[in-house]
Fold each of these.
Amino acid sequence: MQKEIQLNNNDLLVMNLVHYFITEKDYNPVILHGVNDEIWLENMDSDYKLVRIVSHYIHNEEQLSFDRFKLQRILSNLKKKTLSLSMNVISIYTSLGEDVVLPEEDGVISVLIRNVSEIQNGKLLEVFPDIVEKTKHDEKGIDLFVKISDDINKESYEKSKRVEKIFSQKSPLITYLIIAICVILFISMYIFGKGSTYVKTLIDFGGNVAYYTKHGEYYRLFTSIFLHAGIVHLVCNMYSLYVIGPQVESFYGKLKYLFIFLFSGISGSLLSVAFASKYAVSVGASGAIFGLLGSICYFGYHYRVYLGNALKSQIIPIILLNLFIGFTFSGIDNFAHIGGLVGGVFASMAMGVPDKSKKSDKANGCILMLIYLVFLIYLAFFH
């Protein structure tokens, strides 16, 4: 004889809340080691980025004080991990002693909900107006348990598949094509000219010279991206592109990646024309590569739950180190680097981050990108 599963009020309440936040509000579980009888959920795109459900019984004010201390410590760690200056939290308690009073804190909404009928708590309704309607179910007992479990598992599986698709490595054909073009042009400068370090050869092959570019040879803004002065310059840039390019190409897709690369490179060339000396020759893919770094930063910020530590410990230090080197040593076109970095961020905003960016985000990105382009053209040709 099959035994019917009996759910107590607390279990039923927690299941309903978790089901609502995961299936209706796009929250994801947060794994925290050493935390028991609590469920943490995150949605970095929500006004309230964290929801915490505390199911254990808090007897008195002393236990509550320790609970608040633990909450602030976890919050501090999550802020560092996700590069967030502030994180609003909803802390839901299901069992408190009679004399325990929940405090009012900036950025934290604390509510007591002891059973499903109390979900209509005023504070919770202000943030999630549909929570009462969406937590009503016709099923009871084992049927409700199965429905909620199936819904959560299905939603979690679909989310994991989407994330896996975004982060899975694809063949970086565009990156290899760009590297091939740069290498072919480098060899060609020795076959058809006097080498990659000879100024006239660089100019003949399309190096970016402010004087010529300002006098109608606009193609130099584009061609200079693929030229390099010397084997060290070529190897350093191609190695950087080989490391960074496949990641951005995999995240955004081939056509969007190519657009980000070219827009970043041209942005760097324009800023170089605006501030470089009149007859200085500027060549190299480093402006475009800085744009790819900016693109990774923009992508990583949207997926900072996964990439927050990498951004903080690897990507941002690499950008700062390269900018420092550029300003410390002579012969480096810092304006191309800065122009490319900013251009890469704006181009990425316009292209949109997969499964994260809304249409309004992309529209705002397009507007910012066009404003930036017009600003660079003004600096380069009319200032």
Note: The mean pLDDT is 88.
Amino acid sequence: MFKNNPKLKNIFFLGFLLSLHLAFVSYINSSFLAAFSSEKNVSFIYILGSLASLFTLFFVPGILQKIGGYKFLLWSSLLNAISLLLLSILKSSLGIIPIFIFYFTLNNLIVFALDELVQIFSKNSSMGRIRGLYLTVINLAWVISQSISGRTLSEFSFSAIYLIAFVIMATFFVIAFVSLKKLNDPKYDKVLAWQSFKNFFANKNLARAYIINFLLQFFYVWMVIYTPIYLYSHLGFDWKEIGFIFMIMLLPFVLIQYPLGKHSDKIGERKMLILGFVVASLATLSLFFIQKHEVWIRAVLLFTTRIGAAIIEVMSDVYFFKHITRENDEFIAIYRNTSPVAYVLAPIIAFTMFSITPSFKFIFLILGALMLCGVYLSSTIKKNDI
């Protein structure tokens, strides 16, 4: 794999670094923002960041045509690193909130840029294996970071977490600058944005992949924003315990995604997507019904939710990327906007839910029920669709 595509190794390492920094901050962002605002207002900050991401992703294909993937990745990562440095220094909500929104937007751009690069260096015949390995590498970073970030936060402060993330992204920028200099971009199709959307959703396989991925991203949004607040503010766990819980929780992404990607053609995306949604749904519902608050019980329950999510993530990606060509970069932008779309809709729904439900934990009841919709959607995939 890497022998024929030496740059693919560099791209995988960049994906690892990006995920390492994201994992350091993602599960503490909501608590960090809540220190400068209320829990309810945190939802609106994420909504603003997501709207900015959607607006920016809309113009990404045109930007790629003008400056190419290399310069796009460099500028995005440089500005990202500067934003993290500012978040580690600033102490006022007037500065932190707009910088966080800017930083949040840049994350989505970098994820898109790396997706584009992996697509360029992947052959359709080995797509499942490459995607499975790539997801395993980036999720390994999430597991590693949780054992460190929780301990760091319990002994230092939020500023230390964002400073470490800055160092990681500064390293990302340097490695990208050196290792991807002679990158040859494909010829990007010059398609109007609205036409791209029409072409995308006219394809039933791409439309189905989009909705499946949206459900997964909605799951991630509620889990990332509200699980840390629930564990810390409502169940009383400290950050060291939360770091341990999250480290255990994320292990399925490392343990099963590469084998699944490698054997996806033999197993079949349809069966595995159905299984993934069933597991994710039942495990999430159990977070609502099980009353015990021991660390190991919460770790096991969240671990099980991520078994389902890990299956959905790799299988939905393989299913999507099998149905596009290297020149369809605008389709990747549309597919990846499921995350910012989810970050817009999920907090709005959560805010409404908090106003009408008697307890914070009802979020897990509603989320578990929502994931059952993915079971039906996955069952509509036909053999000739793959």
Note: The chain is about 80% helix and 0% strand.
Amino acid sequence: MRGPVVQRDKETKANSGEFWSFKQLNSLVMRQIICAGLGIYVDLRINDAGSIQKFGRLQMTVFKSIAIASALVAGTAATAQERFITIGTGGQTGVYFVVGQSICRLVNRGTADHNLKCTAPSTGGSIANINAIKAGDMDMGVAQSDWQYHAYNGTSEFEGKQFDKERAVFSVHSEPFTVVARADSGVSSFDELFGKRVNVGNPGSGQRATMDVVLNAMGKSDADFALASELKPAEQSAALGDNKVDAIIYTVGHPNGSIQEATSTVDAKLVDVNGPAIDKLVEENPYYAKATIPGGMYANNPDDTETFGVKATFVTSSDVPDEVVYTVVKAVFDNFDRFKGLHPAFADLKEEDMISAGLSAPLHPGAEKYYKERGWIQ
């Protein structure tokens, strides 16, 4: 039903000579639409000259209503155009949290141009992030390269739960599998952890899953520890300092705040993770590689620590629109020097490595588009 007609002034004739040009047409039509939404109908007519002839003088109150409605509709339209994306990270003391926060910082600097707004909350880590992306609860997330592989291929923890829509975006820093033990625990090698109190990591985290892989490779399980605690990264350093555990494990980029806390508050040593079982893991799995944590990086640890590790990778789903992924990738690589300065673990990153190293799922088309524009891939 048409709303009440705003009558033109009876003294004003059709040929009153008051015209609007086509330059004003869009604004005028929008006002007419707004008026219709308010239940007001404005009597307009297009004359032979191609301009709009306005019949009558509208009351000032109607103009005010139109102005208010225009502002409301414009505000609503602007809000409707904004898209919010969520990036899964890890514990607040870990580098994953910094990765997500850094990406969001760069994305949000350009919100006025692309209308994307980004948040990166703390999460349970790699597997939790992948499962959240699969469920549609998150758009993107950080995950260890091994769990990216297993999710896409439906192996290990993802057996029977394959995520074939998983897509790679880029990789970030290397992440050595790190063991820190109290000096008074008597632990100087990985084998000496058995029979001790060890924090194996929280369920859903990549470090916990990788610990399980290492234990399986050695023919061991959590039952071989005197205590297998499941503390989050933010809790484990304090537990080590308070003598609630003898050792903690962490798959993380270095330097790391949690490890720095652990080694500065108590006499603690980084422990080598090597031997035949580790050699076999690295040989049989392309997402693993030998790694060295440089000596002198942490207090009271002057010597290099030999271990193995993975890559931190950034993943998404094929369900996430190409333009969204493209915008995120562009925000990072168009501001690459700024990104590298946001954490010491990023300092040595190279663009050519990030678009391929540790990536086993197919590239998302949005990322692929940007890399082709830069001439990095064909």
Note: Confidence is low (pLDDT under 50) at residues 1-78.
Amino acid sequence: MPVIRTIRVQESKNLFKNLVIGACLHITTETANLVITLEKCGARVFLTASNPLSTQDDVAACLVKKHGISVFGIKGEDSATYARHIRQVAEKKPHLVIDDGADLIVFLHNNPELAGNVIGATEETTTGITRIKNIEKEGKLLFPVIGVNQAQTKYMFDNRYGTGQSTIDGILRATNILVAGKTIVVCGYGWCGRGIAKNLKGLGANVIITEVSPLRALEALMDGFQVMQVEMAASFGDIFITATGNAKVIDGNVFKKMKDGAILANAGHFNVEIDVEELRKQSKKTRQVRDFVTEYMMENGKKIYLLAEGRLVNLGCAEGHPSAVMDMSFAGQFLSIKYLVENKMSVGYTPVPSEIDNKIASLKLESIGIKIDRLSSYQKKYLTSWNL
């Protein structure tokens, strides 16, 4: 992760001296690089998982044993354990919060006695930013929050290329199916959905897009995909992938119309996009047929296969995004936390400052040996003139 490595070398070892950072992130090798860098710059970090299935136990053990970092997370932990781990980090009364899904931020807002030290927080998911904006709308936001997910160096690369590749990686590892020739329904055509659809098309799939936004639906159509309502697509799809950030995108009505052997996977942060409870109600029995693959025998005799319990398939069934793309996302987290420390910000939600975006892009290009042109003085003058 060359960008994070460069930042580690450039930044002061006292940048975060005497500051406690509470981090709720997927515990992966990429996250380890971020956490180690924060510690090298003086912070004391307490890390908890942001998804019950995403923890890489060997990484968690390494952070504890080799780096002395407190980690709370076990792959496959139940909901009660997951909640307890978030509480344990919140009880450290952090000065800074780094979040993925806003579970730690929301916990602090529900337990404000633990939030008194918080200077500010960062959030790196669409779902998490939606939650934070809703807190702000109600006038209940307690501290400044920078939305890392709205950095161009995050959503244009992590969401599109990272999720686009790792979601398919998770499905393939779990099922070993052939994508070519399959009809695959992608629910949502935001940056994640775009990336997933593009990669599937490249692998030879017949891709159908479902959307609630007329603009995104039109974009998907112009990009060469079929567009229809999810209930209409239900009878065609071999595989269904949700990437919306919303709840019950695939519900009971859709299950009833699915073909025998349909596969369900979720690429959204929370396990709410597929109505798993309704899937259970409509099934006669279930069985585990492979690791992280559950077969539901439906009342109508058809079988539906759910991957990773409806949780993030790229982390539940695989290893998440490649480090090359997470390098930029975590650089955004680090530099945004630095910005919070160095600038007194008022309470509220704000996107990542453009100078941070530009710095990350420049460092990334530099790390792979690419040089770009610069505007000449004449060109700068031309762009600021109106009487041409």
Note: The chain is about 45% helix and 20% strand.
